[in-house]
Amino acid sequence: MLIGVILAIAIGVIILAWIVSYNSLVKHRNWVEESWAQIDVQLKRRFDLIPNLVETVKGYATHEQETLTKVIEKRNVIAEPNASRSERVEQDAELNGLLRQLFALSESYPDLKANQNFLQLQEELAGTENKIAYARQAYNSMVMRYNTKVDSFPSNFIASVHSFTRNDMLDIPDEEKEPVQVRF
């Protein structure tokens, strides 16, 4: 009788621990998804700003059509619903480089540089880029917590049984890792 009660309690504790660990994995996985959604929100904001920026620049920089076309092409690739996260991150890095080129054009066109609409769009885009960077940091933090749960005992056993897999963190593109050249 006593052994039966002890066995029932032990089984109850194991089941309870399993449930708690499983729910914790689900919670962490959902946090990862929510933090990715925050990146998506900011990318959508930037997605909406780019056409206005391109139209503003078009009026002044007619000789820079190739850069403007590339910006729009990258914008559309990022918006492709079937693109994977890694593809979107890679395309986003290329878009960042193109946007830097676009803003560098303003140096060649003083009227554009003084255009209030351009300046406002540039400021909004810079603010959005900061929000994207923050959202990426939050995503990586959530992925690290989730991956720790997936890899730690005993939740790693539960994760493997229920097909919870590690997520990849967002990396900085190689060109952004290089030191910035400052010349006076």
UniProtKB/TrEMBL annotation:
Transmembrane portions of the chain: 6-25
Recorded superkingdom: Bacteria
InterPro entries on file: LemA-like_dom_sf, MamQ_LemA
Gene3D superfamilies membership: LemA-like domain
A Pfam cross-reference name: LemA
Topology in the lipid bilayer: Single-pass membrane protein
Keywords: Membrane, Transmembrane, Transmembrane helix
Subcellular location: Membrane
Family, per entry: Belongs to the LemA family.
Designated name of the protein: LemA protein
